[in-house]
Known about the structure:
mainly alpha; two-stranded antiparallel sheet; Glycosyltransferase
Amino acid sequence: MNVDELKDRARTVLEGNIVQNDEFFYTCPSLGTYQHQWLWDSCFHAIVWSHFKPENAKKELLCLIKKQFDNGMISHMNYWKKASGLIPRLADWLFRRLWPEKDRSRITQPPVIAQAVTAVYERTGDKSFLDRMITPLQKYYDWFDLERNERIADDGLVSVIHPWETGMDLLPIWDHVHEIKRFFTLRSGLWMSKLVKEYNKVNWDIERIKELNLFLVKDVAFNVIYVLNLFCLADLCEILGQDDSVYRARANQAQKTLEEKCWDDATGFFYSIPSLDDEFFPELTVSGLFPLCLDVAKEKLERLVTEHLLNEEEFWLPYPIPCVAKSSPKFNPKGSTMVLWRGPTWFSTNWYVVKGLQRHGFDEPANHIISKMREMVEIAGFREQYNPFTAEGYGAKNFGWSTLLVDLL
């Protein structure tokens, strides 16, 4: 499949996942499985739309901020319509009723939106679009600094309060918070639902959530995305002639703290940590590779690449990058719609790691991963996740964010 054919297939996937009426326009992750609007999915879709039809990217992002809370938070899910089909309707019955508001959730997701707005601006030069987005963006990232930094650990890093916020719902890191010795999907699902119910009891007050301390984590990948997007927001402010210094200072502080607290020199890897102490969660996952996207010390970047990414017993498998290292006893190369983030390869995380490799001149492994991503699409189509040994596709079909491959070509 040549590049033009691949791009045509990617565009067809996005077009097939459009959900719209006079009130809303968004691209759902997969019309047959995930029919609502997810935060970081929509941002990824907008990045790809910016290559094909920037007006769709703008509509996607403007739709995303329509349900922004007054305090600045953007929900991880917006519910614009009722789901159709057995599995989506069952998911709605299980989870939608958990939230105080029936049209949106009370948690957020990796804050990719400033990167998405930047991608649209870079391909259109449309300052009027920036004018419409800049205040919602500032409110969102200011909310992070107040609610998830100052009121929890106040060291520059932001905390997540639920596994769903990470976008990597069942990553083995969370087993340590849940204190389970053997993973079981239903048990984890019940625990995650219970977290929401407990937060409902305290009216989602962050001080009381901190006191409960049921799930407070400074996740590496989440904070890398936060830093990258703070820098993007600062650049957007500068373009519009606004003060950018606050966002650059926050980004630099978060990056500094991440390098100080999450790096383990003994193993040459970055680990997520509890928000209220600095003890590593000792899991080799793709989250720990995300600092390749930042300007951390060169020797740390080199160790991440040589000791871990290119290690055939960890992440350098036939179809990289598995979300969990092969050497982990929790590694499972197979996936499904119910079993997520225990081992398969995902294109969203690949996109970040490849961008990081390119940023620091690791062109050979970056190009290899891109080539293997093309093979995965040729073998299985645009799937939710892929077997890192065989490229077999799992989970949803015609999955939106897997079209991120287009942004790497």
